[in-house]
Amino acid sequence: MKNLFLGMMLIVVALSTQAQEKKNKNAKYTIMVNGNCEQCQRRIQKAAFSVDGVKTANWSIETHKLDVTINEEKTSVVEVKKAVAKVGHDAGEVRATKEDYDNLHSCCKYEREEPAK
Amino acid sequence: MMKKQISILLLTLLCSVSSYSQDTLQEVKVQSKNKGLQKSSKITANTTLLTSKELLKAACCNLAESFETNPSIDVNFSDALTGTKQIKMLGLTSPYLMITEENIPSVRGASQAYGLSFTPGTWVESIQITKGAGSVVNGYESISGQINTELLKPANDIPFFLNAYGSTDSRFELNTHFNTKISDKWASSLFVHGNTRIAKNDMNDDDFLDNPLAKQINVLNRWQYTDAQKGWVGFVNFRYMNDEKQTGEIDFDPKKDKGTTNFWGSEINTERFNVSTKIGYVFPEMPYQSFGFQNAFDSHDQDSYFGLNQYNIKQSSYYSNLIFNSIINNTMNKFATGLNFTYDKYQEFVNVTDYSRIDNSVGAFFEYTFDNTSNFSFIAGGRIDNHNRLGTFITPRLHIRYNPWGKGVLRASAGRGKRSANIFAENQPLFASSRAFDILDTNGKIYGLDAEIAWNYGLSFNQGFSLFGKNSDVGIDFYKTDFKNQVVVDLYTAPAIPGTHQALFYNLNGKSYANSLQLDFNVELMKHLDLRTAYKYYDIQTDYLSGRSERPLQAKHRFFGNLAYETHIVDKGKQWKFDFTYNWMGEQKLPETASNPVEDRLSEYSPSYSLMNAQVTRTFSSTFEVYVGGENIGNYKQEKAILGSENPFGPTFDASIAYAPVFGQMYYAGLRFKIK
């Protein structure tokens, strides 16, 4: 009897913990993305929108901040950073590869520190 | 069934700056910092924003006079008696425009003729002017454009504002605005406006008043509720207006001569009452998703007579619009959808004929906007409406914008509009003539006539560039309006009995189109010195019974120029502002007068002429400024403003043919005082 009771308590706890982990369908994140001109804005925003689950994406030339709203049931902020890095812009801690950076238009080639070896 | 559609489930505010209900509630405030006339290369439709800075450049006593410094809208006098200013866009008169106030249709039906003079200029925060077929969200009636006026909002208004104005044509105006923030959520404003013209002016010695004796009192009380955390915004407005005009012969005395042939006179008395509400809700954490619910109840009562012609119209209207805005996947794909209901009860009497009727309609709309956030966007919208007189019909609209390179914008639009022509309310100036009215068709549902249907197509290109280091832009736009049906107002076809005149109304049999071309060139000549110029060409033809012809009182060529200069703002806000506007009108075709005796005959075309306006404003501080100005400084007056003025009850009398100002030069002065 006692075991049964303990078992039921465990199930209740397990279920309630799951309920607390409900995904945010409108999670807001700000990612620092390096870039220079208006062309960059288009490329960065387009890259962010290409990720399914990104609802809004706004990059400011002055502050270098990319504000996104994402549906965490469909994607995560890491996916967004990877998509932006793929087109040549360092996004947060995710860095663009040398080839992608070299593909950027000259006005977009922002200053970047060499990655630590 | 209609009540169900109105039922309040969810609420959202349509507090948008643009005429498309896509903006969020956060965008309540309109920045008027830089330019008076703002054109953005990011907006899909061909929309220009007039901010309060632009409205201060001219006397702007009421909404009808707010377009003097803007080339997209032509302003002229509707007749030689009432001093009413009429606006035209793309060569078509205001009945073909959708005029809304805070996105609720305002000037329509009975108020079509004088409605723009019922909103004082100081109440206006900004005006959005859209050329071509507009958005489907507000309705199906717009054919050549949309004009939306935003009024000052209580939540961001100053505590007190006073404007006093006087002019040499003996017109005096007083505007007082009071505002109070009742709590962090509630704010209220009270605007009181009064104007009067007390002296009789007859500058051209034809024994007729050049502009009417008038009195108007106009009161608006607004309440605004804002709860930004929860996402609710609401407005309630109460409005009352009483306007009286008397015009006609200078010796006319209404008490003795009304209804007689002693002297010819006219009185137009209008009383209006309006209650409107707007409720909006923005979903928390989702600024792109919102609901809006607008309701407006309007009562308009006009009692008037023009000589022996009596015209009384009373209109009660109810308008309701429920809109839902959201996105599909992301903000590159937005949409707006909703339901709309309108009801109009007209009690209309022309002399002894009763044209009373009830109109109602119910409709649903859907509008999708795609914006790739850089160089391409389009808006595709459609609506389906069921109207008791217009039947069931679909209204499609499309707007496309493409930025081919930096500072270049290419726009295209196409759309359909349908409306019922309120032939008497829209052509009131014709009552002030000897014309006999005749409606030739009897099978239609609107005075025996059919609905007006037109398609509008437009293409425009604007390029910004640097000229000697200064900002300039050049633009070209071309619009074509093609009427599938139109109620033709025929002032050309001579009646069977020579020497008499008539106004015929009939359904279009043939073609009627309006092509307009506008070339703009704007340049910042020096710091704080801006030049705006525009050339307009109109080719407007209609098939009348007597053959294809240009429409009357429409110039083929027009030229506009505006020069604005302001000094640096020095300590405590001292500044000088100078404004000069030049308009050149080409010749206009006039209604048929060949059968009149020679002294009452006009040539087939009017002469071309120029008009000049100027204003100087001296700002003493951020709370006090004084302005003086002149309109029609060149003192150009129309010769023979009123035909048959010696015998106003005879067959040649016509006060409706106004191709130029009647009054001549007018000078004015005023002051504006604020408490912040």
Number of domains of chain B: 1
Distance N to C terminus of chain A? 61 Å
Oligomer: heterodimer
- Give the CATH superfamily of chain B: TonB-dependent receptor, beta-barrel domain
Structural class of chain A: alpha+beta
Helix count from the secondary structure assignment of chain A: 4
In angstroms, what is the radius of gyration of chain B?
24 Å
Category by helix and strand content of chain B = mainly beta
Q: What ranges of chain A have pLDDT less than 50 throughout 5 or more consecutive residues? A: none
Order of helices and strands of chain A: HEHEEHH
Overall average pLDDT of chain A: 79
The helix content of chain B is under 10%
Beta fraction of the residues of chain A? 15-25%
- Kindly state the number of beta strands of chain B: 36
Morphology call of chain A: elongated
Main β sheet profile of chain B: 22 strands, antiparallel, barrel
State the low-pLDDT regions of chain B, or none: 4-33
Q: Which fold name is given in CATH as the topology of chain B?
A: Maltoporin, Chain A
Quickly give the CATH architecture of chain B: Beta Barrel
